Amino acid sequence: MEILSKTVEKMSSYTTNSDINQVFAVMENEIVKFLRGKKIYIYLIIIGLLLALDIGISLMVENSGEKMSITQDGDAIAHSILGNLYLVLFIMATLFTAGAICSEYEDRTALILLTKPIKRPTIVFGKFLASMVVGFATLLLFLIVVIFFKAVGNGTINGDLFAGMGVFLVYIMAITGVAMLVSAFAKKSSTSALLTLFVLLILPIILESILSARGIDPWFFLGSLGDTGRAVIEGGGEPLRDIAAMLVWTIVTMAGSIFLFKKRQF
Fold it and tell me: Where does residue 177 rank: exposed (0-12), middle (13-18), buried (19+ CB within 10 A)?
């Protein structure tokens, strides 16, 4: 509450034309909340476990009768790590974005926030950027790990690796937009987290199965788009088409989030 009061005071000191400053003030407040909360520790533990499982299982599994090694099969280990990056990003959206809007009503902090000269879209964009910062930090961590295994294992480090990470960044925009939309709709953070996980992880599997059974390629669903970054890193995929779809997801969901937030009352 003290952090919120200081943030509101800072935003109130700006003029009505300083929406950008207010956006960054909201973003700063959200990031401080992330760092001081327990969710960041849960998130780091999950990342550590997934990386440990990826690396450990890869080293224990035999390939053509021989166990993999870091020096000889670092590229394959990096491939396995990238394969689970989309799952980590789903967890990020669930932990840090799903409660972004609904938590303000659940904790009654919106009573303070909305009495000040702050536009609701400003609040939405500030919270969106805060989640993007967490997502960017996650990508940076995975980039360091992947570069390490590629370098040690005589893998290829070229422009495709960084281009693929850029695609993952656009993907984060899309899933963050979805989580923001769910948060603007839900009444409680716990409900929003479950709905976000369902919409991002379970629902696409069901819909993709239905469409695939009817001969329709479900490439435009977020589940399928989640592998675009890895495909680009490996020199394949259709990045321009998939990036366009991600941007559509971002624009539509963010517009929906702002609309619902504007209509929402206590």
Answer: buried
Spatial separation of the C-alpha atoms in residues 264 and 124, rounded to whole Å: 13
Structure tokens at 71: 């020096």
Maximum pairwise Cα distance, the chain: 69
Compute the half-sphere exposure of residue 205: CA atoms within 13 Å on the CB side of its CA. Answer: 5
How do residues 226-238 score in pLDDT, each as one tens digit?
889 989 988 888 8
What is the C-alpha separation between 163 and 159, in angstroms, rounded?
6
Q: Tell me the per-residue pLDDT of 52-69, one tens digit each, with 9 for 90 and over.
A: 988 888 777 766 667 767
Q: Give per-residue burial for 62-84: e unless 16+ CB within 10 Å, then b.
A: eeeeeebeeeebbbbbbbbbbeb
Q: For the whole model, what pTM was predicted?
A: 0.86
Distance CA 175, CA 170 (A): 9
At residue 216, what is the residue type?
Answer: I
